[in-house]
Specification:
Elements lengths: L7 E2 L5 E3 L2 H22 L11 H8 L14 H17 L3 H17 L8 H6 L13 H19 L3 H16 L16 H12 L2 H13 L44 H18 L2 H18 L30 H17 L3 H15 L17 E2 L1 H6 L19 H10 L6 E3 L3 E4 L5 E7 L2 E9 L6 E8 L4 E7 L7 E5 L2 E3 L3 E3 L2 E7 L3 E8 L3 E4 L11 E6 L2 E6 H4 L6 E3 L5 E6 L6 E11 L16 E10 L11 E2 L1 E4 L1
Helix pairs in contact: 1-3, 1-15, 2-4, 3-6, 3-15, 6-7, 6-8, 8-9, 8-10, 9-10, 10-11, 10-12, 12-13
Length: about 650
């Protein structure tokens, strides 16, 4: 395999985040979320669903005689916590936290079996069933998260304690699985190991790990499929049609798949790994398949928030344009997987739509998964909530009207923590002579180009304002390019270099290219117009017929009962309505709210009748909208993203 990478990321240690929006959240992770999640993993949160995840490692290490408790993939929660905590150390060094990480790594090492195998469920609860349930057993999935944790820990601290453990495990897996006749020709029903092995290869330069990842990608979807012969196949979902091969993205070879099918998180991790392999091999067929899958997701299966997965049962995609609001699943982890995939696609081919969607889900469909104080979480992120319906309707059993302290299946909370603490690595990518700016997040970045070093300081109050100031400091005497993404929501922008207006720059794939020989210190300023926009869905999205959504910049807004009263379905708004923008420092941690003249259908006009002759009974009111990601932080109540169009 030859190195054909077009773009590289900047080491997250070379980026310091200063933007208040993200700096505050990273600080929250360090000071509150990571300690809170540690307590949750140790069952120290009163009233929260028990995790037992750390205790399971103690049992596997022989320190405890308790029975295993929790989901069979409970180990992955600990792995993601280690990853988040490791990233956090880069931002906020903390000897106590570092010591705690060291202790849990030592515990994990003692839980590892002599042959390198490492999984508490199969060590403690089912020792005779190793490698027998690839459909739903999650063994390789858990291994993948441990590998990702080890890579993050090594990169953040320079310590190889966990890296050595996972290399032993990866070596064991490589000895058991692969294309050779004396090995199992298998892959995991829940993708994750593939992308993790590529990350492990990047750190160790051990090509066996890359070859194994490539093998798993190539093997998936070959027919007849071994998954159908497993005795456990479909058992977790009552052997229903929702858990057939497409649930695992195993219904056809990955290069032949053109629609996003099955379990949404599994799909995102698979597509991320496919992009990883395409980056390493330069294989055009894989890249073409990814483009088709992306087109299907973006044009037909993605919510306006960037959320993915429309059906709660089997946590999956269904069919084109099926995007219900109240029953939407849109798991937080699927949104995080979407960020991973879009980030890899930006390395393959720098198109602004990838960064647009990465931004969309970051600011909307992911941050909605955590409360502003960091102690409560959504697993599911619907676009419409009526608390009474959530309580009384079976088809809304998966929806919560309020965030909860923890989950028995707690994959999402530590996933959010590891994403937020590593947000810096998603801002830029670099080619030999070009720095691509994908996200507008204030901070300092140290960047190595082919011809030398560049320091970039980005200053902005994004996403509340569209002004971005970029100071470029370099001693490079050669020409290089600074590429700035023009967001898909922005129709007009104004730009200057060193105070002089510029209007005739070349634009390519949605990026404005500033190609020049730079002086030692120069300042680029760009002002993105950030008007309120009323968005309508494709006519085939049945649930949104005759409705609009409110957006401003990268943010999707919603209406809440606390601001607008109950029965939000009675609200409507006219196209062309003028919006008042107000920054409220005293609300939701500091937020721009939107106000507009709207209408409410007069309930009194019904005369109490369930059905009546149609009349116009709308009364004018003031509608207040807040960012969707911040809904549910002011108590229990209704919420809706889509509003009737007047």
């Amino acid at each position: 395999m030859k190195d054909v990478k077009q773009h590289t990321s900047i080491d997250f240690k070379d980026i310091i985040i200063t933007s208040p929006f993200w700096k505050d959240r990273i600080e929250l992770m360090a000071e509150k979320v990571i300690p809170y999640q540690w307590d949750a993993l140790n069952d120290n949160i009163a009233g929260a669903e028990p995790s037992h995840a750390i205790e399971n490692f103690r049992i596997a290490a022989g320190d405890s005689k308790e029975p295993f408790h929790g989901m069979l993939f409970q180990d992955s929660d600990v792995a993601k916590w280690i990853e988040a905590a490791s990233y956090s150390l880069v931002h906020y060094p903390n000897k106590d936290l570092e010591s705690k990480i060291d202790e849990v790594i030592e515990l994990i090492g003692r839980a590892q079996q002599k042959d390198g195998y490492l999984n508490t469920y199969y060590t403690v609860a089912c020792p005779k069933k190793r490698w027998t349930n690839f459909s739903f057993g999650h063994e390789l999935y858990c291994a993948g998260h441990l590998i990702e944790a080890a890579v993050a820990h090594f990169n953040a601290t320079g310590k190889n304690s966990l890296l050595d453990i996972v290399c032993r495990y990866a070596d064991h897996i490589d000895s058991v699985m692969g294309p050779e006749n004396n090995k199992m020709q298998v892959y995991c029903g829940h993708e994750e190991i593939e992308l993790a092995l590529v990350r492990l290869y990047h750190v160790t330069e051990e090509k066996r790990y890359l070859r194994l990842a490539h093998y798993f990608i190539n093997e998936r979807g070959k027919q007849p499929c071994f998954l159908e012969n497993e005795s456990t196949y479909g058992s977790d979902l009552n052997k229903s049609r929702w858990s057939l091969l497409d649930y695992h993205q195993a219904h056809k070879p990955v290069r032949e798949q053109t629609k996003a099918d099955g379990h949404a998180v599994r799909a995102m991790y698979l597509y991320t790994a496919m992009a990883d392999i395409a980056l390493e091999t330069g294989e055009k067929e894989l890249e073409d398949a990814l483009e088709k899958l992306y087109d299907n997701v973006r044009q037909k299966r993605m919510y306006i928030t960037g959320g993915l997965g429309s059906q709660g049962h089997a946590e999956r995609f269904t069919f084109d344009y099926d995007l219900p609001n109240d029953t939407a699943y849109t798991e937080t982890c699927a949104g995080i997987g979407f960020v991973f995939w879009m980030h890899r696609m930006l390395h393959l081919n720098t198109k602004s739509s990838y960064a647009d969607d990465m931004e969309r889900v970051l600011y909307n469909g992911i941050l909605s998964g955590i409360s502003l104080d960091g102690t409560r979480y959504f697993y599911v992120n619907p676009l419409e909530v009526l608390p009474e319906a959530v309580q009384k309707r079976f088809d809304l059993d998966h929806v919560k009207a309020e965030r909860v302290q923890w989950f028995g299946c707690a994959c999402c909370p530590p996933n959010i923590a590891r994403l937020v603490t590593s947000i810096g690595q998603y801002i830029y990518t670099v080619s030999d002579h070009t720095i691509y700016t994908h996200l507008y997040i204030g901070g300092e970045a140290h960047i190595n180009l082919k011809d030398g070093e560049v320091n970039i300081t980005q200053t902005t109050h994004y996403p509340w304002e569209g002004s971005v100031k970029i100071q470029v400091n370099t001693k490079i005497k050669e020409i290089f390019t600074l590429a700035l993404r023009i967001p898909d929501w922005c129709n007009h922008y104004h730009m200057s270099i060193n105070g002089e207006a510029v209007s005739s720059l070349y634009k390519e794939n949605g990026y404005l290219l500033i190609r020049k020989e730079w002086e030692e210190e120069e300042v680029v300023e760009i002002e993105f117009d950030m008007p309120v926009q009323l968005i309508q869905a494709h006519p085939k999205v049945r649930e949104n017929a005759g409705k609009i959504a409110i957006t401003r910049g990268p943010l999707v807004y919603c209406v809440e009962e606390v601001d607008n009263g109950s029965n939000l379905s009675a609200l409507s708004i006219a196209l062309g309505s003028e919006f008042e923008k107000e920054y409220r420092h005293d609300l939701l941690g500091g937020v721009v709210i939107l106000k507009a003249e709207g209408y409410r259908e007069d309930e009194a006009a019904t005369g109490g009748e369930l059905y009546r002759i149609a009349t116009n009974s709308d009364k004018p009111i003031k509608i207040v909208a807040v960012p969707y990601s911040m809904w549910g932080n002011r108590g229990n109540g209704e919420m809706s993203v889509w509003i009737r169009k007047k």
